[in-house]
Amino acid sequence: MAKEQKPKVKRSLFRKIINVFIGIFLGIIVIILLFLGFSQTKTFREILRTRVIDLANKELNGKLNIEKIDGTILTSLFLRNTTVVVDSDTLFSAKNIEVKTSPLQLLIRRIYVRKVLIQDARIALLQNAEGIWNMEKLVKPKPEDTTTSPFEFTVQANDVQLRNIQFIRQTYKNYKSQKIYPELNFDDLRINNLNFSAEAFADVPNSNY
Predict the structure, then answer these.
(1) Helices assigned H by DSSP within 1-106
(2) pTM
(3) 99 near 116, Cβ under 8 Å?
């Protein structure tokens, strides 16, 4: 005796729409998880390093180089041996740059930086024979942007640190000078082993700093 076939249950249009949205949502979750997993890999960090260098060098009159990027990208970023060269002068070099953030704070319009650390760095502001400073030449000139838009985010940085910073500011005639002065000479200023620690808060729309 043949078994009776159960009648097929027809799904309502509403049920089908709900199933589609559930499928899309689950698909997005899977993509996010895959991206988060891939973002922890050495391959992704190398792709990011190369992309950042390429984008920066298109906007600069100098050359940016980052030897290595470590960290979890979204929350903790470590830049190893970063340099910025303008002409033949090294404007900036740092053995270690560390940035730790909390991306979810963006949902409440807050840029929340848990930590910023620049360690073992050298900053050299140098003037050429034409009286132009290397910092002035760093960024390529662009047409003036007259449009304005409000900055609606607050900025909070709980831990800003500079460790073992060397700072140099020399005019052209004092280039590579090692003279010792009885008082500050801003045409030949050399500071070694500078350390700095601070925290900051800025609410730009309400002028609260």
Answers:
(1) 13-39, 42-59
(2) 0.77
(3) yes
Q: Please give the pLDDT value at position 5.
A: 55
Instruction: List the end-to-end C-alpha distance of the chain, in Å, as a whole number.
Output: 85
Joined together, the tokens standing for residue 102 give 């909390």
Cα(42)–Cα(46) distance, rounded to whole angstroms? 6
pLDDT digit string (tens) for 139-185?
A: 877 776 666 677 788 999 999 999 999 999 999 999 999 999 999 99
The Cα–Cα gap between 98 and 80 comes to 9
Beta carbons of 150 and 206 less than 8 angstroms apart: no
* pLDDT tens by residue, 80-115: 999 999 988 899 999 999 999 988 888 888 889 999
Closest CA to 39 of 66, 75, 72: 72
3-state secondary structure of 175: coil
